[in-house]
Write a structure and sequence with these properties.
The protein has 21 helices and twelve strands. By secondary structure, the chain is an alpha/beta fold. It is globular and about 80 Å long.
């Protein structure tokens, strides 16, 4: 089958989130064809280029979400059929289209303003009415963009600003939104336009998203928008995978100088409404853990559509350490990750001070690098200063050089050449985060057979499952007590490490992840409504049906059953049905009636394989 993989700021680019996971998925399912539809997030990401793609990636179409230049496209890429943002927006709008645009924006913005009061996951007639207005506005804008070439100039126009102002001042609007001023209107309009840029890409064609059998969005939000439109325009089923909680990031985003409370409230509600629509239209949703699943349910995801699939990780690279009898440095704690405030290394250093009071020979090795940007470098400098203050260099005698029990190291040097060696350096691996999604470093430590001490955030408890110690976040004393307990009990460390490795090999390998998605793909396409392909002949060039385009039982030998009956059937009754399929013989068996009131796919003699 042909899979349309929808990414946002990741694969196939060399940098970005979910890049490794997507690459493993594509390479691990060579029996399928993949078309990549990628949104890029920065000029730097574009310049870094793509990863090397396998041969069964048939097409790559990209669109930059950071520019509106008509010539912002790739050249010279293998299979580089690129997309673009259409920019002839608003300049050629006639009076009728201007009225349509204003009506759609009014519906969408009015629903966003009303939703700031109803809140996420709230029921009732008011919430349902707001959701209906939101989807009417969203799909109306999508159809207008498809017909006229895009929305950038129109969404940035004074008309939109006035609609936002009117909606914010409407009776019944909450106090926060009602207090918005002109700078708030302009900031929200700019954020709305950026969020809706995927509506303006040139992917919504029969040979674009209309040519795939299944759309797989690897995150919610912007990357799922093309999947929504592929379902609406062509009837393509949508699969949504989320390993993190982008909605949570919107709600917890730190206040910015250019965004006041009204703007943050409006944008958060827009993304919440969009997520609810994505979850409602998706054929299946595969959260990466229960923590993500709870957020999806909060925003309206139907439990019957949810199937947890843990992200697969390569266990082989940690096999030598995991199978070794070496328990690592018996008095050494290891921390591995990106150095940023969310990891709360400050609390870890204070906890280690408590550990040193009970275990004077203990050491703490911190492996990582600061996140890009000034904030990461500043946080690393703060941690180094605190470590120097809490642990002055110690010397064993008057003739020895002092040594600090806390070291900040980077992986790749002669002493620690790779990641597995970093985990092997300690007897206990520590995670001290205050915010965490799926704890990758924790799973890697489990593959290495290491006992762990972690804070109770994100999906930590779900991942550990009783094979490690879990303490409350922002509690250095509890963190220290757990570390001391394991440092003093080597037999317990060994038992927990062995149990952790067994759990990781059972749940978190690449193989289990690929097996899950192999079954998901077949299940979704097997239950999807048939999508018609015009047979060769006088009606058009056509071609044989694609694999899985029709169910196996639809293949009949009687040529008179090759097309649905004209009686009561039209091309509009079944998404993706070719107009020419609405005519023909009326002798169609009852099992050929499709789920949408049309007919299931029926091929004449010599039709393609299912």
């Amino acid at each position: 089958m042909r899979i349309g993989l929808l990414t946002d700021g990741g694969y196939p680019y060399a940098t970005g989130e979910s890049r490794l996971w997507c690459d493993r998925l594509v390479r691990g399912l060579p029996q399928h064809e993949f078309d990549l539809f990628a949104l890029s997030r920065s000029a730097d990401q574009e310049q870094q280029g793509w990863v090397r793609l396998p041969d069964h990636v048939e097409r790559v179409r990209t669109a930059p979400m950071w520019t509106h230049e008509e010539d912002a496209r790739h050249t010279g890429r293998p299979r580089g059929l690129t997309g673009r943002l259409a920019t002839g927006l608003g300049r050629s709008y006639g009076r009728r289209d201007r009225r349509r645009f204003a009506a759609h924006v009014t519906a969408l913005v009015g629903a966003v303003c009303a939703g700031t009061e109803t809140g996420p996951g709230s029921g009732g007639a008011a919430a349902e009415a707001a959701a209906g207005r939101f989807t009417d506005g969203l799909y109306g804008l999508a159809e207008l963009a498809r017909e006229q070439g895009g929305l950038h100039h129109a969404l940035r126009s004074e008309t939109t600003v006035r609609i936002v102002e009117s909606a914010c001042r409407a009776p019944g609007t909450g106090r926060t939104v009602h207090a918005a001023t002109v700078p708030d209107y302009l900031a929200f309009v700019a954020g709305l336009e950026r969020a809706l840029r995927p509506l303006s890409v040139d992917w919504y064609e029969e040979d674009g998203l209309g040519a795939v059998d299944l759309c797989h969005a690897v995150s919610g939000g912007a990357s799922a928008l093309p999947g929504l439109l592929a379902k609406r325009f062509f009837g393509v089923p949508l699969l949504v995978t989320e390993h993190g909680v982008p909605l949570r990031a919107h709600y917890l985003a730190a206040p910015e100088a250019r965004r006041g409370a009204p703007v943050r409230a409006l944008l958060a509600n827009f993304h919440g409404a969009l997520a609810s629509e994505v979850y409602r239209q998706a054929a299946l949703i595969t959260p990466g853990n229960t923590h993500v699943r709870r957020w999806q349910e909060r925003f309206g995801a139907d439990r019957s559509k949810l199937r947890t699939v843990y992200p697969g990780m390569e266990a082989e690279r940690f096999g030598a350490v995991g199978e070794s009898d070496d328990g690592g440095g018996p008095g050494t704690l290891v921390w591995i990750g990106r150095i940023e405030p969310a990891k709360d290394l400050i609390a870890l250093l204070h906890a280690f001070a408590e550990v040193r009071g009970s275990e004077p020979d203990a050491r703490l090795r911190i492996f990582g690098a600061p996140v890009t940007g000034g904030e990461g470098d500043a946080y690393l400098a703060q941690c180094r200063a605190l470590a120097a203050q809490l642990f002055p260099d110690e010397a064993t005698d008057a003739h020895a050089v002092g040594d600090n029990p806390v070291t900040f190291e980077e992986i790749g040097g002669p002493e620690v050449p790779d990641l597995a060696e970093a985990y092997a350096a300690g007897g206990v691996v520590v995670l001290s985060s205050v915010v965490e999604g799926f704890p990758i470093s924790l799973v890697e430590a489990m593959f290495c057979g290491r006992a762990t001490v972690s804070t109770d955030v994100g999906a930590v408890v779900e991942v550990v499952g009783g094979t490690g110690l879990v303490v409350p976040p922002r509690n250095p004393r509890a963190l220290a007590d757990a570390c001391v307990a394991l440092l003093r009990d080597p037999e317990r460390r060994a038992r927990l490490g062995a149990a952790a490795r067994a759990r990781a090999l059972e749940l978190f390998t690449v193989e289990q992840n690929l097996a899950a998605f192999r079954g998901v793909y077949l299940d979704l396409v097997g239950h999807a409504p048939a999508r018609w392909v015009t047979p060769p002949g006088p009606r058009g060039p056509g071609g044989p049906p694609r694999p899985f385009a029709t169910p196996p039982e639809a293949h009949v030998l009687d040529a008179q059953l090759a097309e649905p009956a004209a009686a009561g059937i039209s091309a509009a009754t079944s998404p993706g049905v070719h107009a020419g399929a609405a005519t023909g013989a009326s002798r169609v068996p009852s099992w050929a009636v499709g789920a949408y009131g049309g007919r299931a796919g029926v091929c004449g003699a010599g039709g393609g394989d299912a």
